[in-house]
């Protein structure tokens, strides 16, 4: 089940919300846990058994770490927890990939042997909930947070449905107090609804429109792909993945608020970044912070000299790439970002600061878009062919039958809206209007009343348009099945 489905919007969520606010406080976590398991089980019962086993193991390992903090056994239990969690991730996410690469190696050597395809099915969201479990165990070991003795509360932390399948990656320490004591009030609920609907608009009304363009462009064989459609396809994918991913994060944050949880922000207008370094401070913030705190800093960070810093960065971005999917394309995507992070540390950042600001943005977006080709393409052959179509002129006559998908008024409108919405323009306008009317009580009341009306209208319009789209159009891709 995904947030942008009619089943979730009009059946699952209303039932859970009504039940949640009717039930007594001491049973709210139990209700949310059961709801989260049902939500996850919608995608397959076998997936759910893996999640439940992971929860049980992490609960008991965490308890043992907590009991042995005053002796060396805590380290042993932490090692067990890390091995088990990464073992689950390795088998279910990378098992097929490992076998495929081993067989490739055998085929290109004198070894006449091949391993049968294990046909392992990837559990949705395993990368997200595994990283959450790991952060809990490590933080208990480091004494950053007390051990959780209530099974229901830890199970809810790992499986809470708003952030279970697409993040953000929530640290246990950030919501430990909220698991037992959180505020369920009208203010949190209304702001949660607003945030959820904003995310729904990003996903259904913007991202899905670009998804059709991107999927069309990347489905055409590179030798038959015109330069115009190639560039249109990667621009569309650049918009799709941002509005899809940030839209899901907004919906998760909004859902969390409805139930009294406060999740940290996951995106901060990454496409306005002026460097790759700044881009990663704005893109998928929860993942960037996770790798910083649990991999980059333990490796030594930037404390052991320049060469070690560059090596650490390459390790982090290698792991960042492979975390996103079992493919060498993802590794190449991560390493490309790591390479430019190193180049900026070597002095490219100082050169960029001397350039006209628009050139800084152009540089960043160009690198990001080139990396997205690697991220989206099926394999290296597809990626290189796509690059060739982009940078070697090929006539639009090759794709006359598909140009109508790219050239229509609806796409122009959504394109302009997407470009504006990927900047801070709406935030700036709201801030200026607030400042204008804040000095006068009457004006402020009028402004607040008008804003409330606009927000209410926005919610009604978005829900109506999204419902119409979902009813009339089955094209509702889910990017995170590989995560």
For the structure shown, list the relevant keywords:
3 domains; 72% helix
Name the helix and strand elements from N-terminus to C-terminus, one letter apiece.
HHHHHHHHHHHHHHHHHHH
Low confidence ranges: none
Structural class: mainly alpha
E-strand count: 0
Structure description:
It is a single chain. The chain is mainly alpha-helical and 483 residues long. It folds into three domains: 6-181, no CATH class; 185-267 and 398-483, no CATH class; 270-392, no CATH class. Helix content is 72%, strand content 0%. The chain is built from 19 helices and no strands. Helix 3 packs parallel to helix 5. It starts with 5 loop residues before the first helix and ends in an 11-residue tail after the last helix.
Quick rundown:
With about 475 residues, the protein is mainly alpha-helical. It has helices at about 5-20, 30-40, 45-65, 75-105, 125-140, 150-160, 170-180, 185-220, 225-260, 275-280, 285-295, 305-325, 330-355, 355-375, 380-390, 405, 410-420, 425-435, 440-470. Helix 1 (about 5-20) packs antiparallel against helix 2, helix 3 (about 45-65) runs parallel beside helix 5 and helix 8 (about 185-220) crosses helix 19.
List strands and helices in order, with pairings:
Blueprint: H1 6-22, H2 28-41, H3 45-67, H4 73-107, H5 126-141, H6 151-159, H7 172-180, H8 186-219, H9 227-258, H10 276-282, H11 285-296, H12 306-324, H13 328-354, H14 357-376, H15 380-391, H16 403-406, H17 409-421, H18 425-437, H19 441-472
